[in-house]
Amino acid sequence: MDPYPGDAERRVDRRTVLAGLAAGGLTATSGCVRQTRSVVNRDGAEQLSLTITTVPSDVDRESIRIARILRNNLEAVGIDVTIDMLAVEEFYRETLVNHDFDCYVGPYHGDMDPELLYELLYSAFADEPGWQNPFGFTSLTFDELLEDLHESPDEDRPEHVADVLDVLADEQPFVPLCVPEELRLVRTDRFEGWDDHHLATRLGYLGLEPLGPDDADPPNELRGVVTDPRPTENLNPLSVEYRERGTYVDLLYDSLGTADNDGDEGESGDIYPWLAESWEWEDRTGAESTTDVTVTLRPEASFHDGEPLTADDVAFTYRFVEDTSLGEGPVAAPSPRYRGKVAAVESVEALDDRTLEMSIETGRQAGERALTVPILPEHIWAERTDEASVFGFARRPGATDAVVLDNVPPIGSGPYQFVDRSERERLHLERFDEHFSLGVDGLPQPTVERFTTRVAPRSASAIEIVEENDADVTVSPLESYSIEMVSETESVRLHRSPSQTFYHVGFNLRQAPFTSPYFRQVFARLLDKAHLVEEVFEGYARPVATPLGDDEAWVPEAYRWGGETGTGSEGEDEGEGEADDPSAPFLGSAGDVDVSRARRAFEEAGYRYDDRGSLLVRQ
C-alpha cells in the first residue's frame, strides 16, 4: 500500500535527495561519491557523538539497561555515545518540556487507543510541551493521514490506522520496543474485588469489598505502597514531569467519563459516564466529522472545599487546558497534559448549571477520550495564569504557574480528598463523604474511610511490605526483576492487568542526525527487541513493532510481531528477519549486532566511515 496515494513522484524525489546528501549534515557517499568525498576532505569531519538520555536504575532498571545495550551497539558501529542519567523529574522536563535531548529511552504510559498516534505525531504539537509530539516530527502529508484518522467515524478507523502505520514504519520518529506485563501484589484476605477494574485507574480502588475475620470488624483503611515518590511531592494534574499514570489524580479529581479496562491486553477500555449523569451524541447536520454532545452533570456535585461544581467549571477546564494563560500571555500556553485529548473538542458551552454542549470533531470512540480530562475548579485555577519563573522552564516561553505549582493541597471533587503528606514517605487521603457515587446505585464507591500510601525504594521492598501485611496493594507495578521474588499464598497473590505501557527509544527530529529518516531507520535496527524482552525484562514483556502493540482490532497482520527470541533476526539479505520485527528487523542475531552489516546499512543509506571505523559528521 502506498501511504502517500497520488504523491509517488514527490516521494521518489524526496528519497533521492536525502539518499544523495543525508539530512542534518552527515557525510554522504550515495550519488556522486567523489564529489562528496572532496567536500569532506575540504571541510573536515569528525566522529558522530550522541547522548542517550534516561533515568538511573533506582528509578527504572529496565530503561538504563536498554540504554547501555543501545550504547554498546552504537559504539560497535562507530558512534561515540554518552549516557546522561537524570532524576526522573528532570528527565521528563528535559525531554517533554524543554526538548533538550538527542535520543532517550523510557516508557510511555497511557491507553492504547489509536488516537495516541495523533497526539504523539501531529505537526502542530511539535513546539508544545508534554507528550504532544515530543519528537518534533513534522510532515504535512503525514498530517493528512493523522487528520483522516482523527476525524473518521468509528467504522473507518482501522483503515486509517493501517495507513498511518505504513508511514510510521518508514519514518521511525521513535522506536517501539516492548509492552511489559503489568503485575501487582494484592492481599486477598483484607479486600476482594481486585479483578473488577484496572488498578492503574480510579475504578481499581473503588468498590473493593473489605474483609475481616469473624471476630473483628472489616478494615476501614486501604493501604497502598508505591516505588515512585512523586505523588507525595506534587499533586498537580497538569505537571507532566510528576505524572505518569495519574492514578492519584483520578481519585482526587473527577472527569465527565471514566475508562474501564479489565479486558484484553492493549485495549483502551470503554468510556462510561462518571461526573456526567448522561450524555447524548448527535451528528451535526452538514458536518461530516463533527458531533454535538449534550452532557448533563450529576446533581449537587461539589468540590472538596464545599464550592458547587457546575457546567461553568467544565467549560473553563477545557479552555484552560488549551491555553493556561487564558489568552493573557505573550503566546498560548497549552497544558503539557491532556492537551492532545482536548484537541478533539471544537467548543464547549455551558447551557445552565448542570448542562453543557460540546462540539467534537472526531468519531465517537476518539471523542469519548476527551471526556476523561480532570475537571478543575475555576475559582482556584483561574488565578494561576501568570507566567512562571521557575528553574528548568527557562526555555519554555509562556509556561504558567498552573503547570509548575505543586498544587498541595489539591482541591478536586473526586471520591477521595487530600489530608496530608510527608514528602517521599507517605500520602494520606480520606473519603469525600459528599461524593456523588455514594448516592448512586451501580457506581463503584469509596468503601473505606482512608486510603494511605507509603513509599518503598524498590519493588523488592514493596513486595516485602505487602507480604508482611503492612500494605494491601503495590499501586506501582512490579519491576520485572522482582516478580520471581513473590511467594504467593492464600492471602497474597499476583494480580495481572492489561498493560497500558510501551517502552521506546525517542528521537529528537529537531536536530541532526535524527532529521534524516534514513539514519533513524538504520538506528532502529540496532536493537534486538526479542532479546531485550528476555535479558532486560526477564520474559515479562512482549516485543512489538508498533505503539499499538499487536492489537488485532487496529494493527494489520503485517505489523504484528511474528517470532521468538533469537529467531529470524539474521537479516533480510537472506530473506529472514521480517517474521519477527516487520518494522525494523534487527541487524544481527541473538542480541549481537552484526557490525559489518550495520556499517553497510549506514553506507547504503548515504553515510561514510573513516579508516578507524568511526561514523563521520561534518564539523
UniProtKB/TrEMBL annotation:
GO terms for molecular function: peptide transmembrane transporter activity. GO terms for biological process: peptide transport. Keywords: Signal, Transport. Pfam families: SBP_bac_5 (PF00496). Belongs to the bacterial solute-binding protein 5 family. It comes from Natronoglomus mannanivorans. Residues 570-581 have a biased composition (Acidic residues). Residues 271-611 form the Solute-binding protein family domain. This is ABC transporter substrate-binding protein. InterPro entries: SBP_5, SBP_5_dom.
